Amino acid sequence: MVALAPTPVLTTERLTLRAPASRDWPAFDAFLASPRARFIRSSDYGLAQTWRAFGHVIGHWVLRGFGNFIFTLKGSDTALGMTGPWFPAEWPEREIGWTVWDEAAEGKGYAFEAAQAARAYAYVTLRWTTAVSYVDPANTRSAALAERLGARLDPAAAHPAGDKPCLVYRHPGPEALA
């Protein structure tokens, strides 16, 4: 099995956040094939597009030196979802993004806990001074999570060109960590 190196591992009270690995492919593919992924897919499910998207997730670490973390329960290596700093070439701003892949993991605060840790990593380790989250207007759960994280709508902020319309939530800056 091949792994990215060196990549950080973050821990929270209940979770481990680690770099994506080939063993996460089945969970990623199953999530993107499900109706639950409708807010992040740009089209209907297709194996070729999903495969490229997973390569994008892993390749972001190589190209940028950071990326989405896979979050798991401590003591387990089963991927529940991913969250983290994200800044593809076409994005106008650095983003903290998240997805919960396992429906059974929803409503337990895992995405909130993981996103808080990922945002702190972006501010402290990567020295970001600001971050946004791009949220589909119909994704009320994701909007609620952004607001729970302290992010507020920023109607003046740009969103990714060619992407579906989205709401842009601006996170509190690194000073909020203190």
Descriptive report:
The protein contains 4 helices and 8 strands. The chain has a domain at 10-128: Aminopeptidase (3-Layer(aba) Sandwich), CATH 3.40.630.30. The mean pLDDT is 91. The chain is 29% helix and 19% strand. With 178 residues, the chain is of the alpha+beta class. It has helices at 25-33, 47-64, 110-124, 140-148; strands at 10-11, 15-18, 69-73, 81-86, 95-100, 132-135, 152-153, 167-170. The longest helix has 18 residues, at 47-64. A hairpin with a 7-residue loop joins strand 3 (69-73) and strand 4. The protein is globular and about 35 Å long. Strands 1-2-3-4-5 form a 5-stranded antiparallel beta sheet, sandwiched between helices.
Key features of this structure:
single chain, 178 residues, alpha+beta, Aminopeptidase, five-stranded antiparallel beta sheet, three-stranded antiparallel beta sheet, 4 helices, 29% helix, globular
The sequence of SSEs as H and E is: EEHHEEEHEHEE
In the CATH hierarchy, the architecture of the domain at 10-128 is 3-Layer(aba) Sandwich
Question: Roughly what percent helix?
Answer: 25-40%
Total count of strands: 8
Number of helices: 4
With strands numbered from the N-terminus, the spatial order across the biggest sheet is 1-2-3-4-5
CATH homologous group name of the domain at 10-128: Gcn5-related N-acetyltransferase (GNAT)
Structural class: alpha+beta
Q: Indicate the radius of gyration in whole angstroms.
A: 15 Å
Uncertain residue ranges? none
CATH class assignment of the domain at 10-128: Alpha Beta
The overall average pLDDT, rounded, is 91
Shape: globular
Distance between the termini: 39 Å
